[in-house]
Design brief:
Low-confidence stretches: none
Number of helices: 7
Mean pLDDT: 90
Order of helices and strands: HHEEHEEHHHH
Strand order of the largest sheet: 1-2
Radius of gyration: 16 Å
Strand content: 5-15%
Oligomer: single chain
Length: 187
């Protein structure tokens, strides 16, 4: 909990993604942007409750909010192995949606009951959010606001989104974020 990165658990990443997709199958606003934000919020909440994220992924500050550092590889692996199918909706329009669909059910025993429940909680928490809403929400957080593009968002800050924040909150957040960046570049 001192800012060191966690080791990604790709088996858990796969099952967490499948659980989120399955849990959100009736959500008309569910697309790739919302999927990665739900994964982020589940990892943040797991960190707060259990001292470690579900997946161990590192999330980076990106223009549209937190994104997993290895997302492109994860996405390619999920489609290559036949775990998910990505359906492109509204092609050519300003907001093309990448709708994800499971090609199999989540495997039992990879995620704990608590982790599965926590993933489902995030789907319920953000059920009325579309992609833009959840991006805007993520931009309110200390973790995202105290980091720069492509910098990791420290789990110690992740998920804190109850503004207004004091100058001391921002100073502390920036110090924590800078320590994480320095640790990454010195490895």
């Amino acid at each position: 909990m001192d800012g060191r990165p966690f080791e990604p658990q790709f088996d858990k990443v796969t099952e967490a993604v499948l659980t989120l997709i399955e849990s959100a199958h009736e959500d008309v606003n569910f697309g790739e942007t919302k999927l990665v934000k739900l994964l982020y919020y589940a990892d943040c909440e797991a960190y707060r409750r259990f001292g470690k994220p579900i997946t161990g992924l590192t999330y980076l500050h990106r223009q549209y909010g937190p994104y997993p550092e290895a997302w492109s590889s994860i996405k390619n692996s999920l489609t290559f192995h036949g775990d998910v199918e990505i359906q492109y909706q509204n092609p050519g329009l300003p907001y093309e949606r990448h709708r994800w669909a499971n090609k199999r059910s989540p495997k039992a025993g990879v995620l704990t009951a608590e982790e599965t429940a926590l993933l489902q909680e995030q789907v319920q928490r953000f059920t009325h959010f579309n992609g833009k809403d959840i991006v805007d929400y993520s931009h309110q957080e200390l973790g995202w606001g105290s980091t720069e593009e492509f910098e990791p968002i420290p789990y110690a800050l992740a998920g804190f989104s109850d503004p207004p924040f004091t100058q001391q909150d921002w100073d502390t957040a920036r110090r924590i974020a800078a320590n994480v960046v320095n640790r990454r570049t010195s490895v």
